[in-house]
Amino acid sequence: MTMTTKPEPTTSVATPIQNSLTAGRLPTPAPWLILGAAIAVSAAIFGVMGLAGEAGYNWGGALLVGALLYIPSIWLFSMLVEGRRRAMDRLVTALVTGAFVLAMIPLISLTITVITFGLNRFDADFFTMSMRNVTGEGGGVLHAIVGTLLMTGTAAIISIPIGLMTSIYLVEYGRGQLARGITFLVDVMTGIPSIVAGLFAYALFSIFLGPGTRTGIAGAVALAVLMIPVVVRSSEEMLRLVPNELREASYALGVPKWLTIVKVVLPTSIAGITTGIMLSIARVIGETAPLLIAAGFTQSMNWNLFDGRMSSLPVFVYTQYANQGNPPEAYLDRAWAAALTLILIVMALNLIARLVARFFAPKFGR
Amino acid sequence: MSTASTAIKAKQRPGDRVFSGSAVFAGSMILVTLAAVALFLIVQSIPAFFASHEDASILPESFWSYVGPLLFGTIWAAALALIMAVPISIGIALFISHYAPRRLASVLGYIVDLLAAVPSVVFGLWGIGVLAPAVQPIYAWLVDNVGWFPLFSGPVSGTGRTILTAGIVLAVMVLPIMTAICREVFLQTPVLHEEAALALGATRWEMIRTAVLPFGRSGIVSAAVLGLGRALGETMAVAMVLSASGAVTFQLLTSVNPSTIAANIALSFPEAFGINVNVLIATGLILFIVTFVVNAIARWIVSRRQEFSGAN
Amino acid sequence: AANESGAAPSESASSLSGNLVGAGASSQDAAQQAWIAGFQTANPDVTIDYDPSGSGAGRETFLEGASDFAGSDRAFDDEEVAAGGFAKCAPDTDIIELPMYISPIAVIFNVEGVDTLNLDAATIAGIFAGNITKWNDAAIVALNPDATLPDLAITPVHRSDDSGTTENFTDYLGAAAPDVWTYEADGVWPFEGGEAAQGTSGVVDAVTNGTGTVGYADASRAGDLGTVAVQVGDEFVEFSPEAAAAIVDASPEVEGRSEGDIAIEIDRTSEEAGVYPIVLVSYIIGCQQYADSENVELVKSYFSYMASPEGQDVAAEAAGSAPISDTLREQVTAAIDSIQ
Amino acid sequence: MSKRIEVRDLNVYYGKFLAVEGVNLEIEPRSVTAFIGPSGCGKSTFLRTLNRMHEVIPGARVEGEVLIDGNNLYDPDVDPVLVRRQVGMVFQRPNPFPTMSIKENVLAGVKLNNKRISKSDADDLVEKSLLGANLWNEVKDRLDRPGSGLSGGQQQRLCIARAIAVAPEVILMDEPCSALDPISTLAIEDLIEELKLQYTIVIVTHNMQQASRVSDKTAFFNIAGTGKPGNLIEYADTTTIFSNPSVKATEDYVSGRFG
Amino acid sequence: MSKRIEVRDLNVYYGKFLAVEGVNLEIEPRSVTAFIGPSGCGKSTFLRTLNRMHEVIPGARVEGEVLIDGNNLYDPDVDPVLVRRQVGMVFQRPNPFPTMSIKENVLAGVKLNNKRISKSDADDLVEKSLLGANLWNEVKDRLDRPGSGLSGGQQQRLCIARAIAVAPEVILMDEPCSALDPISTLAIEDLIEELKLQYTIVIVTHNMQQASRVSDKTAFFNIAGTGKPGNLIEYADTTTIFSNPSVKATEDYVSGRFG
Ligand SMILES: Nc1ncnc2c1ncn2[C@@H]1O[C@H](COP(=O)(O)OP(=O)(O)OP(=O)(O)O)[C@@H](O)[C@H]1O
Ligand SMILES: Nc1ncnc2c1ncn2[C@@H]1O[C@H](COP(=O)(O)OP(=O)(O)OP(=O)(O)O)[C@@H](O)[C@H]1O
Ligand SMILES: [Mg+2]
Ligand SMILES: [Mg+2]
Hints:
The complex is a heteropentamer, with 1 copy of chain A, 1 copy of chain B, 1 copy of chain C and 2 copies of chain D.
Chain A: H1 30-49, H2 59-82, H3 84-118, H4 124-128, H5 142-173, H6 176-190, H7 194-209, H8 216-240, H9 244-252, H10 257-285, H11 289-294, H12 313-322, H13 328-360
Helix pairs in contact in A: 1-2, 2-3, 3-13, 5-6, 5-8, 5-10, 5-12, 6-8, 7-8, 8-10, 9-10, 10-13, 12-13
Chain C: E1 18-24, H1 29-42, E2 46-51, H2 55-64, E3 69-72, H3 78-83, E4 95-110, E5 116-119, H4 121-129, H5 138-143, E6 155-159, H6 164-176, E7 195-197, H7 199-209, E8 213-218, E9 226-232, E10 235-237, H8 241-249, E11 279-287, H9 296-307, H10 309-319, H11 326-337
Parallel strand pairs in C: 1-2, 1-3, 5-9, 6-7, 6-8
Antiparallel strand pairs in C: 3-11, 4-8, 4-9, 4-11, 9-10
Helix pairs in contact in C: 1-10, 4-6, 9-11
Chain D: E1 5-14, E2 17-27, E3 32-36, H1 43-49, E4 60-68, E5 71-72, H2 80-86, E6 87-90, H3 102-111, H4 119-132, H5 136-139, H6 152-165, E7 170-174, H7 182-195, E8 200-204, H8 208-214, E9 217-223, E10 230-237, H9 238-243, H10 248-254
Parallel strand pairs in D: 2-10, 3-8, 3-9, 6-7, 7-8
Antiparallel strand pairs in D: 1-2, 1-4, 4-5, 9-10
The site of one adenosine-5'-triphosphate has 12 residues of chain E, from strand 2 and helix 1.
């Protein structure tokens, strides 16, 4: 305690500091200095203790331990200089930032992995060819791109209206028993495991189209079953955020309820709803297991949702990885490139949705 | 003005009726779908409940002794994932909503959203190829140095493909959706309440504790439930990453790990025939029920203090 | 897609057209893709889909009549055949089962500085059963006096999914080392212990990424990993296509099956020179007589292509399988000719 | 273009809770009527029963009759949407539609009802309504800017313009000035003065000066205690209410030193 | 327990937009100062600079000095958290924490500082603060009910209780009565009268009667036009401002017939 820079009496917390508004504060660059010191100490520990490993100095480990060391250090320093509450604040700041950085590590690692491996086959052939009559090297994913877009698109066409209308019902019309029942059922529906959805769609279409049939539409239905609850949940949240004032303003003008919903409520919440829909699409577009079961797998182009098997990008990635032939690198390269393609597609959809949302979004501000 | 007086008398407008009718229709579609799924699951499961090893070769004895360890593994893996993901996603959401500079925040939000788009197969590939080898030395160190702690006891897995790794992969997978919801909710915290806290002389953290977190509590629970639902049902990534056997063990770092229901279906379904198929579907039914129970508990938690909720 | 439309060679004499669906074992998927590619190139109006959904699923699908043929890592067993009910086939007719895809299973390992090891069945069984836990165990050293074996823990890796590979591998262990390996042959790994990984790729990845790991996988995927030469009689045999084909020839057929149902019971304990006993035989299963004669020509022609030396070579190239021997081909061809 | 309103034995409920009890009232056409009373006495609640906005709230219902020119609003076959077109409403907090420009906001009542209107008619209507709401000069150069970009007082007048654009016959205003500064308040009071030449106006206010300035008649509501229903205590000419009320409670309330 | 505030050459910005320009002002301890002026002239903005709440808004910043008992609030090493503990604030719309009970709301600020306040101390403090805010009698039986269940006026007084519970030396109030009915307004005006014996109080109001009733000194702010910065036009004793202002604009504003 002899080191404290500020001889403030720390005992009288309840009585305000009379003479000055300044409390002891760490100088602005202090956190950075402490971070640097923490990393240096950790680096030294790694050096001395020989934790570095034979393969060379373990920089990653040193940085990680340094960062971990920073968290208690900043708390300690702040505690000594600035007092308990500030210390807590700094600790939480460090933790929150730490959580963010920590989450960035897998993201960056994943991105780097997908891009470096994916770029090997990111060529013109890859986007203009299917896998028909291709063995070993070469080939492309056009058929899987088409399949993914067709099936996800159909799933979206099924589930967005149903999901949106259901959430409208829950927010605008639903009262009492039926609404509570539907909320409950939507909850139940969020619990359907994806593979069960696949089994269900497969069994359902076996009834209509004969046993054992695997078609794009079955895949789309499986995806829709997974997608609807996400759409309902997110749209419901967003519709509830629309202030009642606006609805009342519209009713007071003699606008019928349905027009109020269509022209006032939906446009006001469109940004949130689009975000929710994008999340739901992202949720299903990468599904593998249900599509493998319901839509099967083919090497050829298939534009017909109602006849024949249909490939999709995730299934393509999976089969390329799982059933590698000769040379295995060709299969792995295709798998990664297809994964990269899938991520890019979702990115593009996301961007489009954001633009749409921005276009319709309420225009606030002066 | 007798014209006006009759004018206010009109029958219900067709637009309204069509619109509310289609909303009800959409709602009942959910009912129908769900009934169909439930019916399918139950009908398909019934033979499994009474099957023994003779009927279905994958059953050790009865159905329940088969599903028990799987159920344990499912819950254990999801719990591990959630223990990691909930604090981190709250952290990220707070970072984006209350710590990062405005400009940066929306970009960061977008980046995290993108993680949601990564297909589970890719998480699987990444888990096998990148994550597991990277964490294996840490596991080895843990077993050597804190192996006395039951969760960390050895022998360490030689490949790092343990339940903890699967938990990490699951955590990374559920992060985006949980973060997105938490972030939206935190951003909705009324400025009034935030300023009320600040005006009382709260530090940023204290403001978050008094205004933001209580307001976002139900949102956090919703997010956790959605994340949990995803973690419980995730199939491919777990199947690919986890070194699964039927064991029931809490050890995190060994080669012998419990399997999960969804992963087990994926692993066993291709070779399944006869009653085995029913057995696997029945495990799906169990998973369905578990997820639902978790959901119901979460609803109950949220509704318990409704009176004090932020939505006023 | 660019490769689909204009691919038709104009002078193609082929009159075949139609759509054939097969489903089943993922083990033969790479071979099937090669066969399909070769066949479709020669017959541009034909589309064949092979769904690598798994042997069990493949057999179920065929049984339901949803596919024209199945690929399976095991033949239907006696009861299943007796039960009949194959929807695609004419009532009360038999099925044909053709061992068209033979693939050696390699025992692969990852120990620095060791490329190959000589092991006998008992030692392999000991390793996978968890009795032998160190690479410098006396049993291994005794068989490999020249190798420099480290004091390193052995991590055995097995398949976590239900698979024909596991069934064949455990069948070998049980037959060749019954004292050490007391479990029945099964597609599911019979006990808890060791590392598990999904699919051939998972096992290969786990062995590659780990240290001191050992596993079993389709030989074509062994890559740069160390492989085991298995003791047969007095010699140690490395896996090779020829050795794998040889064991099939040296093994008896399952008795009591109809003509054309060529189910083989691999003789894992054969001591004949140059056979490699750990093999997987994957069958093509079709009908002796199809209920609907529409696709029969196509089926016969496709099956014949698979069995032809050319077809077997394509598969060997693409999937690393072992071409079937000429004696076996004769039987297979006869069976195909009988299809109607 | 204005109507007489009669209220007979009106009870207003929120679910089981009786919020306003036994109101009898007659409002003359082309007049301004002010509702005053302490918080929670049911002024807003009662006001909203006059154009059936009350029933928008789940569980809310009404007993009794509200007659507009002799027609009971609460007859079973009356269409509330048509009622609201005849009885417009302005709320306490200005609530322009955030997704719409100033012009679209004014036209909202017309456009949202899917009425087709020619561009020149629309422009005329916008100008007329904004002029009527005393806002035209301030916004005529930026009709395409979002309505939420205006100041509070301007937003409130925009809402009034929006309300009069559908040509109602009665306008209800629930504390239209409480969020506004004196200058905007003045502008709106002037506006009420003008509007009353054409419309029947009912206004809720906490500001007694405002009530005495703008209204012809005043209704005083009171409440006996929390959980009790609100009652109409006294209804008379504004001058009477403020100078010579017949009920003690009214006198106590209006003679408070505040306002 | 009260402080003198001096403001020197204060410019207040929102990003690039200069909202308030060149304010010089001295506020005596234990007095009530009212800020009046038309909407958008920067009253709230200026008020919020007095406890550094301004900087909570992204991009907002300040030039110049605000001295409290001679210490500049905007010195680089001043801790805004400490400033806000000494300078409390009450907002226009009552904002009790909805997740907390009445009691927890009162203790919210205290708990931040002193986690381990004993139960009896806490009860004492709650009673003292609620008594100070004139709310004790109305809520003493339901301290554990949510604060959001109170009426608007009660909520506002709850917010005042919450503000005085942390024992600040200055209390800033931004239109504390504008959402309230006259009875609640009266209660709060009475309260201000009492609080001024202990605290320095600054209040923004649109209600000139209110300003003249409660304040000792009044500051009139004005704005030349939209987009222009607001200015302090005149600052003097309340009686002077309302009876004999020295600037024409002030006279125009206070002599409006409204209030
Ligand atoms: N949506 C609602 N649901 C249930 N009760 C309500 C609702 N709105 C108002 N009330 C209750 O009805 C009574 C009358 O409320 P109302 O808002 O009409 O009062 P008011 O006179 O307008 O008050 P103020 O001057 O504060 O606006 C109050 O007791 C109130 O709590
Ligand atoms: N968050 C903000 N960002 C940008 N500009 C703002 C912000 N808040 C207020 N302003 C602008 O600053 C100026 C002063 O606003 P302020 O709210 O201080 O006015 P006021 O005098 O309090 O008005 P009122 O009486 O309506 O409350 C206005 O031009 C306003 O548009
Ligand atoms: Mg009201
Ligand atoms: Mg203001």
